[in-house]
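New here. Your pick:
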Amino acid sequence: MTDTQYQFPQLFLRLALAVTMLSAVADRFGWWSPENSSWGNMKSFEEYTRSLTSVFPEALSAFSAYAATFLEIVFPLMLIAGFKTRIAAYGSSVLLLIFAVSMTIASGPKAPLNYSVWVASAGALLLAVQQRYSFSIDQLTKK
């Protein structure tokens, strides 16, 4: 995806990943209407995270919920700006892979398939291995 013909698909992938992850965060903060919400608030998300990480102590589950939320804000903002895009893409891929595996173990294969978590992780990995990032801070600061 380094040729001119791939600039817009690459940008589209960056933005689609970022907006999708930020939408999940918006849900946790209660910014979506109740009928369009999965969690609706951070407490519900913490409970959901606890169900995915039931083998860990409760304190670690709570930490996981907040750490995931933090990373789901930072990585998308980096992707939108095209700042340290490779790091953000690899980080997003790993984070989404952790979600997919956790969801599969805790809930079975249907949940991560319904939410396309595997696809998002793969898309982030594909983005991470690109040579250049068009329309990005990375491109502007490249020496």
